[in-house]
Every structure is written in C-alpha cells, then in structure tokens.
Amino acid sequence: MYIAGGGEAIGALSLLGGLYVVNQSTKRWELKYKDTAKTYGYAYLARFSTGWVFYKGGVGNKKYVIIVYDNGTTKELSVVSNVYSISTGPYDYCCVGASYQGGARIYTFLATSVPDSLTYYTPGMFTPDAVIQGAYASPRGIVYSTTSNYTYFSANPTGTQWTTATTRPQLTALTKGLYANEAGTNTFMLIGNNMKSVSTDGGQNWTTSTLGAYSLTDLIYVDSNWYAIGSNGTKRLLLQNTASTFDQSNKILDLPDRSGQVIKINV
C-alpha cells in the first residue's frame, strides 16, 4: 500500500505483511520487518540514507514509529496517538505528525541516530495532514493542516520552535507535501486536487496556483524533473514536466487503474 525510496533502494509496506525491501543483488523482494504481535497495520513509509521509517498501529492505545536500518537493526519508538504523516529530508532528519486531544503533536529527530524515546512539540490545535522535512539554509520542518490551511515552519532542526506562516496555502484538499531543491530554490510544495501551493522561503509565504488538466495522486522530484501520477477521470497517466504544470502534452505512458504512486527505479 505504500512504496518509498529511489534508485536501487526500494521498499514497500503491506498493511498486514510488514516492510519488504528489494535485495540489490537478487532484485527480489525480501521481508525486512514484521511484528509477531497483532497490529492494525503499517503506514507512511519514508527512506533515509541508511534505512526506513514508518508507522505501526498496535493493540489498544499502543502506537509506534518503526526505524529499520539497512544493517538489520530495528527501533520501536512509542508515540502519543495515530500518525498522519511522516517525511525525511536531505539531512536525514525525520518529521512525524500525530494528533492528540485536538492538538498537533510533532516529533522531529535525526533518523541516523534516533534517541531511545521521542519528545513531541505542539505548534497548534489542529490535525497535521502533512509534515515535510527539507532545507532552507539549514534543516527545516513544515507542518500543514487542511483545517483553515494552518501552516507552521521550524528553522530549528529539532522542531522545538514553530512559527505561523505569513501567507498560507489556499488548497481545498491535500494529496501530498514534499521538498525539492529545484535549481537551488529550496522548494516546498503541497498538492491537492489539481492545485499546488509552493514556498521558496522556508514555509513563511506560499503561492497557490493550478497544476493543469489532471488531479494528481503522487508527485516526486528527481534528476531535475517532476514526475506525477494523474487522472483525467477515466485513466491514470504518468506525467513528466520540468515546469510542474502537468498538462496533457506531458503524457508519456498509460498506467493501470491501481497505479497511485510513483518512484524512480534504476534499471
């Protein structure tokens, strides 16, 4: 249900099966992590330089962020409530967004050296629909909620201080948030329906505009190009564009109906 990584580091989450990773030698999927206890499933897979991070629901109130390193080491870290979003950034910082008692609970940590327990910070009273880890002069986190388009940014890599955005995104729905160093611009982007909202000043100000003819279900930036999965209502299409407008002229391949995510694979 979730796929992440790029190049030769490809991982996928099965809601019941756990984490599968492509063996770079055999090019076959191998089970990397599966909990022996009963769980409610896994979600929100992200890749960092030496491993994987994702969310695992548990029995009762038990919720966890799981870190699985490439060397086989595993860490299970308790979080206060259900996780809504996880992302990793260029400095290997990870940002996890949860919601508890009406307030956003944001965990930020260095994925390559995770502490034994996590501390959350509360930027505001909303559900964190997207968290983004990126760079703007230094590691920086962005938190976005579709409730009144609440947006906060933190210039502190550990996420202990959060500031309200001056100009908020103007989206009616959210599909994905991501960071891309597009031509040195340090771009943070949110997409929803056929709209996008972009910040190039670290999350303080956002500009909202139309993406193009398609509603997108996923978006990545790699090798100076944007790649997206879009739908025209009857077909899902793989789109490519250097200007991130994604109009019909960029169609390069029809895809099966269930193709909802896109990543780059070295072949």
Structural write-up:
The structure is a single chain. The chain is mostly beta strands. The protein is 0% helix and 52% strand. It has no helices and 24 strands. The chain has strands at 2-6, 9-14, 18-22, 29-33, 42-48, 51-57, 63-69, 74-79, 83-88, 93-100, 103-110, 120-121, 130-136, 138-144, 151-154, 163-164, 176-180, 187-192, 195-199, 207-210, 215-222, 225-231, 236-241, 251-255. Strands 1-2-3-4 form a 4-stranded antiparallel sheet, with no helix packed on it. Strands 5-6-7-8 form a 4-stranded antiparallel sheet, with no helix packed on it. A 4-stranded antiparallel sheet has the order 9-10-11-12, with no helix packed on it. A hairpin with a 4-residue loop joins strand 7 and strand 8.
What count of helical segments does DSSP give?
Answer: 0
Amino-to-carboxy terminus distance:
22 Å
Adjacency order of strands in the biggest sheet: 1-2-3-4
Would you identify the regions where 5 or more consecutive residues have pLDDT less than 50? none
Structural class: mainly beta
Mean pLDDT: 87
- Topology order in helix (H) and strand (E) letters: EEEEEEEEEEEEEEEEEEEEEEEE
| Main beta sheet | 4 strands, antiparallel
Shape: globular
Helix coverage percent? under 10%
Features:
single chain; 267 residues; mainly beta; 4-stranded antiparallel β-sheet; globular
